[in-house]
Amino acid sequence: MEQVCGGDKPYIAPSDLERKHQDFRESSIKHFRSIKKMGGEEFCRRYQDQLEGEIDEIYANFMKHNDSKNIFYAARTPATLFAVMFVMYIISGITGFIGLDSIASLCNFIMGVALLSLCTWAYVKYSGEFREIGAVIDQVAETLWEQVLKPLSDHFMEDNVRQTVANSIKAGLTEQVTQHAKLKAN
Fold this sequence. Notes:
By secondary structure, the chain is mainly α. It contains six helices and no strands. The protein has helices at residues 2-5, 14-34, 40-71, 76-97, 101-127, 131-185. 12% of the residues are buried.
C-alpha cells in the first residue's frame, strides 16, 4: 500500500484505493494460509484474525493519509495558478490599452493556459484520475512558486517590512522629541 498511496504518491480515487486494498488483503491472507504452521487450525485462526485486523487498521490509516492529500496539499498549486492568471490579466489590460496587442495576446494566451491547467488540476484532484497529469501540473506550479513568485513576494515583503520599521522608528523618535519638548515647557 505504501507504493500505491504512500508519502510522496499523489491522491488516488477512493474506489481505486479500496480495490488495491482488497487485492493486497486477499494475497496476504492467501500467503499466510499457504505457509505451514505449528499449533493446529484453531491456533492459526487467532493469528489470521490478528493479521486481518492489522491490515484493516493500516488501510484506515492509508485512507486518512490519502484524504489529507486531497484536501490540504491542494493550496499551493491553485494559488500559484491564480496568481499567474491575475498578473497576466493585469499585464494584458495595460499592454492592450497602450497598443501593444501582440504582448496582450501572449498574456491572454498564458492566462488561458493557466486557467485550463487550473481546471484540469481541479478535476484530477477531485476524481483521482489522470494522476500523472496532476503531478506534472503540481510540479510546474511548484517550480513557478519557488523560482518566481516566492522570491518576488519575499522581496516585496522585505521592502515593506523595512519601510514599516523605518516609519515606526521615525514616529517613535518624533514622539520622544515632542514629549521631551513638552516636559521642558512645563
